[in-house]
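Lab notes, practical 5.
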Amino acid sequence: MKKYLLLLIVFIVSTSFVGNRNTALNTKWIITEHSNLSVNGTTNVGKFSCKINEYAKTDTIIIANDKTDNIILTGAVTIDVSNFSCSNFIMTRELRKTLKSDQFPQLIVKFLSLKEIANPNSKVSTVCGNVEITIAGVSKRFEISYRINIDNNKMTLVGVQPIYFSDFKLTPPKKVGHLVRANDKLSVIFNLNLRAI
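Output from the prediction step:
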């Protein structure tokens, strides 16, 4: 749920289209429907998976360079915690409760920077960048590695990132009278579809 996030790659794609870093400045990308996110974890008795099957919003990311030529991203992805489904009513309820959905209904991924530019001659590239994720009112920065697939003015961004409930001062969810307990570590898997605008 958390990291979901995500998109840093956006900039990479822009360079792939133009082949020139300078012409990528102020490039805008929009997250399209059919993007999805899942969070996989383990408990003392097995595994669980919680998903957001479709990202219905149209958040926009802007790519630019600052005065020192660092790559910066402006924009954020806002995810409604109530949209998580674990295919199990009790686990879904416990997850939402753990993330304090009543008090903090949204999870936010803010894009900060990219460390590198994708190879303009390669259709599929891997790139790293920094994001700030806010869950239950607590913000934490992460470095994420993404794999992107470029096709004309469209891009698919796929990433897997380990995170911990404790990163956000949260206690892993429990269910059935505390007999089943989730472990602290999670694996966040995201698949984002973007379109240049």
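Observations recorded by the TA: The CA atoms of residues 16 and 120 lie 4 Å apart. Residues 10-196 form a domain with the Lipocalin fold (CATH 2.40.128.110).
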